[in-house]
Amino acid sequence: MRSGLNSSLTNTARYIADLQLPSGALPWFNGGIIDPWDHVEAIMGLTIGGHTEQARLGFAWLAQNQRPDGAWFAAYADDGHVADATRAESNFVAYPTTGLWHYYLATRDKTTVSTYWPMIVNALDWVLNLQTTDGEIYWAVDTKKGISRDALVTGCSSIFKSLECAAHLAAVVGETPGRWLNARQKLGHAIRHKAHLFDRTWESKARYSMDWFYPILTGVCAKADARQRLQSRWEEFVEQGLGCRCVVEEPWVTIAETCELTMACMSAGEPRKAARLFRDLQRFQLEDGSWWTGYVFTDNVFWPDERPTWTAAAILLAADCLYNLTPASPLFKVHTP
Questions:
Q1: Are 43 and 10 in contact (CB under 8 A)?
Q2: 111-118: long-range contacts (C-beta < 8 A, 24 or more apart)?
Q3: DSSP type of residue 34
Q4: Among residues 4, 19, 16, which one has the least CA distance to residue 314?
Q5: Under a CB-based contact definition with an 8 Å cutoff, are residues 8 and 285 in contact?
Q6: C or N terminus of the chain, fewer CB within 10 Å?
Q7: Concatenated DSSP letters for 102-143?
Q8: Which pLDDT tens digit goes with each residue over 193-227?
Q9: CB count, 10 Å around CB of 261?
């Protein structure tokens, strides 16, 4: 894969690569936890940066740590022990599918897809066992408490994209994609038309920006609906000149959410908004290529004092989406209807 990264982004990819453990695990930061979703996000950052051997090592870590039932625990310690030994989350378990399709788009490496396709099928079997007849997918399963019988808009939107990626991967390995597409269709209908299925047993998550833009980012909303949804809460969540708030009432912009909103703008056909958001983020990079998690603008403080690998990866994904740096750039701006 030939990468068109500038020196700033090259340093960002190297920052992720330097934090990868010999096992292939990609912790949040030195000494931090590993969770399956952010591990996959970091794999995608490695792929964009041309670190394809290390990306493959990241997939190998997933395969080695997959449970017999197809899931992964919600968090692992950097010494290899399970940090959360009871819970598995459906969107976490689905996300390696998106990561593997992204890797294939960038590399056209069919051998790696074939190697990890059984892992993907086992993971998605576990996820789809949590899909109800109404279409939503339950959030989590706890080995002590059982199934959390409620659904998240953000989590289900992420799964919606993973199911699209599963259909594409199935075509690569010569299998029929019908099962994944049928589940995706049901899930999309639930997200678009059955709001009562979400946040039934806990406080609404609508105060989080991800609930606003994830249906746009992942292709749940068609172009016209995406633009309308984008405009509906733009003034609430976007802090002019800084980025996207994580939570509507908090004076805190976060770099990863701003990157995802950048890609959501591209998905909605709003490239000027996307470019402006991404340009505003450049002040948050450090000399080693890493990026702050977030910025509390009322106090002029970077908070927390962390520079996660997944934030660095989100920067690389947003840059690729905007500037077409690799063949994987269409991932979050072109969706199967």
A1: no
A2: 112/56, 112/59, 113/169, 113/172, 113/173, 114/173, 115/59, 116/59, 116/62, 116/63, 117/169, 117/173
A3: B
A4: 16
A5: yes
A6: C
A7: HHHHHH--HHHHHHHHHHHHHHHHHHHTTB-TTS-B--EEET
A8: 999 999 999 999 999 999 999 999 999 999 899 99
A9: 30
Helix (H, G, I), strand (E, B) or coil at 185: helix
Task: Give me the domains of the chain, ranges plus CATH numbers.
Answer: 18-203 (1.50.10.10), 206-337 (no CATH)
CB 177 within 8 A of CB 162: no
CB of 43 within 8 A of CB of 5? Answer: no
pTM over 0.85: yes
Cα distances from 5 to residues 209, 300, 317, in angstroms, run: 28, 30, 11
DSSP assignment string, 234-297: HHHHEETTTEEBSBTTSSEEEHHHHHHHHHHHHHTT-HHHHHHHHHHGGGGB-TTS-B-SEEET
Question: What sign does the dihedral 120-122-124-126 (CA atoms) show?
Answer: negative
| Closest to 180 measured CA to CA, from 125, 110, 101, 218 | 125
**How far apart (Å, rounded) are the C-alpha atoms in residues 291 and 278?**
13
Instruction: Output the CA–CA distances (angstroms, integers) from residue 105 to 31, 130, 200, 216, 311, in the order listed.
Output: 31, 29, 37, 21, 21
pLDDT digits (tens, 9 = 90+) for 89-138: 999 999 999 999 999 999 999 999 999 999 999 999 999 999 999 999 99
pLDDT tens per residue across span 242-256:
999 999 999 999 999
Q: Which of 98, 124, 115 is nearest to 173 (CA)?
A: 115
**CA pseudo-torsion sign 333, 92, 303, 202:** positive
Rg of the chain taking only CA atoms, in angstroms: 18
The string of DSSP codes covering 73-97 is -SEE-TTSSEEESSEEEHHHHHHHH
Q: How many residues are present in the chain?
A: 337
- Local structure of 208: helix, strand or coil: strand
